[in-house]
Structure formats: structure tokens, C-alpha cells
Amino acid sequence: xxxxxxxxxxxxxxxxxxxxxxxxxxxxxxxxxxxxxxxxxxxxxxxxxxxxxxxxxxxxxxxxxxxxxxxxxxxxxxxxxxxxxxxxxxxxxxxxxxxxxxxxxxxxxxxxxxxxxxxxxxxxxxxxxxxxxxxxxxxxxxxxxxxxxxxxxxxxxxxxxxxxxxxxxxxxxxxxxxxxxxxxxxxxxxxxxxxxxxxxxxxxxxxxxxxxxxxxxxxxxxxxxxxxxxxxxxxxxxxxxxxxxxxxxxxxxxxxxxxxxxxxx
Length: 265
Prior knowledge:
Layout: E1 7-11, E2 19-23, H1 25-28, H2 32-39, E3 41-43, H3 46-50, E4 60-66, H4 69-76, E5 87-92, E6 95-100, E7 104-107, E8 114-119, H5 126-144, E9 150-157, E10 160-163, H6 166-169, E11 173-177, E12 182-185, E13 188-191, E14 197-201, H7 213-222, H8 234-245, E15 248-252, H9 258-261
Parallel strand pairs: 2-4, 4-8, 10-14, 14-15
Antiparallel strand pairs: 1-2, 1-3, 5-6, 6-7, 7-8, 9-10, 9-11, 11-12, 12-13
Helix pairs in contact: 2-5, 7-8
């Protein structure tokens, strides 16, 4: 193991979030490196890697290796639960385990800095790449929860964010750090002063009609990308309240394919 040349990444390095990923060499050749860049991970130098402290509050280091043996069989199998979606949350050896059938399995022991993921290495189809985006977004939603960062399926827009259902987003997500007044998406990052405008994508509602503060609070509370047995962290709840108190929201829809509507410069 000591001879393995791991590759390390950090989420939004310049903003100093203590959330890291290390990739086994077997996984580097896959499309996962492309996905890591899309969701906001920056490659670290050897010097930066030596500076990682596992004692820092809230630090998470995710080790990603190739799924093999029983885990690979588990990921590739199908059962009656597939009709409810490819994602599930369970418990193994006292630790939460997130599974995305066909893609990866993530073990996230509570209160521990070291997490592990087993992933298939033949990621190449659009469906698999979307699945990998979903997996990494779920990881980030869990890892960033103690910092009050909230995440939603969707993208950034000129005056705010568009929030939609996962199936409409192609696995793309937007992260909002209300404390730092920052928005992250696959198209980059932006800042805001106090609040922002939230567009809720829904073709069954009148375009531009407003959501009340109560409706917005409820929507934001139940729509995050976080999958957890314990629900939203106290820090996330505070971020949602602060965001609702200082933002406006309306229903949004456009006829163009969503893959195009997500391509903001």
C-alpha cells in the first residue's frame, strides 16, 4: 500500500473547505476525474497533500478505489427495489452506507474524518457519467453539511439559481454557502450580497408566479441533495432560514431542452 501513488483533490481549494478526495491509480483513467473537476475539486500538489490535517474540525478525506468482488456484484445486480430508483441508504457495521446501483458504494462513518468509496471503473456512457455526478454531489452534500452549505439539483442563473428535480438536472447541482455568500455550480462560482432569486422549475405552475416565504422555506428544506438518517444539520437549517429571509422566489419554466437550459456561460 505504501507504494501506491494516490492523487489528491480538494473541494474549492481557494475557499479552504477541508473536504478531500484521494484517487487510487486504477480509478484515475476513468471519467471520474472529469466529474471531480465539474463538481469543484482542485488537484493538489505533493506539498499541499503534506499539509492536510485530519485533526481539523469537519475534515473529510474520501478514499476512492475500484469496486471488486462482492461489492461489484452488488452494484451490478438488479432487484425489485430498482423501480424506486438506483439510490439507497442503509447501515453496515454501524455506519451509514450510500449506494448508487451501477456506480458506487460510499461508507460515511459519523464523526470520522476518513470515508471510503468503491466505484466501477468503466464509466463512459452519458448515463454513467450522470450517475457519477450524482454520487459525488451526495458525498459533497454530506461532507459540507457541518459548514451550513446547502445543495440542490439545478444550476446558477444570472440573478440567482434554478432548482429542479434530480431527473431534470442530468446530475448537476448548485451549492450555496450563505455564510460566505458564494454559489458554486459546474459552470463556476459567483457571489451575492444578501439574498438571491430562486427559480423553482415547474411546468405546471404559472411562469413568474411568486412563492410565499412559507412555501420557499418548505421547498428548500425538503429538496436538498443531502441523504441522511439524521436529516438536515443545524447549520444547514440556519442557512435555509437566512436564505429565505433575504431572498425572493418564483416558478420558472422554459420549453428548450434542459440540457441546453443548463448551459449558462
